[in-house]
Amino acid sequence: MFEKEYEASAKGAAAKVHFLQENPLGYVMVSLLGGAYLGFGILLTYAIESYLGPQPSAHIVMGISFGVALSLVIMAGAEMFTGDAFILYNGLRRKTVTAGDVAKLLVVCYIGNWLGALILSAIFYGTGLDTGAMAKALTDAAALKMTLPPLEIFCRGILCNVLVCLAVWCTFRCHSDSAKLIMIFWCLYVFYTLGFGHCIANMTLMTLAMLAPHPDTVNLTNYFYNLVCVTAGNVAGAIFFVSLPYGLASRRRP
């Protein structure tokens, strides 16, 4: 039932590996853009919180707004680690890519996303807007994410990337750009409003919190602690809760 879409995603994995091999600089550039595009979503949502204040409805509006991040990645064209983990594992299952290809591409994509998030954060800090209510919103959120127990961070990472990967999967299932954008909106609305964790989005959030006046709990040790736990959860969500189920569902009978 899902054979056509799963096969298309597996071929997409091979195309990504070929892109990295043939044009490594180009691949790094679109990975940088992916990190920056996720960062724009973070900037928008925490600007909204700074305008609306700490009220329950603010988080709903933030969730509605965050869809711009993945919309830019999919529609403008960029590489994002969390979505690539899903597509590449599909390719690994269908043998369109090797384990070495997957590991290399994910490392390059992760570093590229990280650099993109760092560059965007530095430029935004240079605007002078990372102050006042916005700085407080960022540092409060980062302090919470950096001090959660590891299992909570891991589980939030799983659920987050289930929804992100479902949005990516729907781009193979949907045939019009408007349908793709609608599904991206819904999937990201759920993950953001519920407070799940995305490693690439957290890169911008936590970097900006480090640059602003911040409490002692916002520090480099906790920065890496969060990234390790949430990245592991994101990868587990992609492989075990989206790629594997749809791979089994799309398997042909002998």
UniProtKB/TrEMBL annotation:
Does Repeat appear among the keywords? no
InterPro entries membership: Aquaporin-like, For/NO2_transpt, For/NO2_transpt_CS
- The UniProt transmembrane annotation reads 25-48, 60-81, 102-125, 153-172, 184-211, 223-248
Protein name according to UniProt: Nitrite transporter NirC
Membrane protein topology class:
Multi-pass membrane protein
Q: Which UniProt keywords apply?
A: Membrane, Transmembrane, Transmembrane helix
Any single GO molecular-function term of the entry would be: formate transmembrane transporter activity
Keyword hit for Membrane: yes
- What PANTHER family does the annotation carry? FORMATE TRANSPORTER-RELATED, NITRITE TRANSPORTER NIRC
Q: What is its main location?
A: membrane
Q: Where in the cell is it found?
A: Membrane
Give the record's GO CC terms.
Answer: plasma membrane
UniProt similarity note: Belongs to the FNT transporter (TC 1.A.16) family.
The family database entries (Gene3D superfamilies) matched by this protein are listed as: Glycerol uptake facilitator protein
Q: Give any Pfam family that matches.
A: Form_Nir_trans
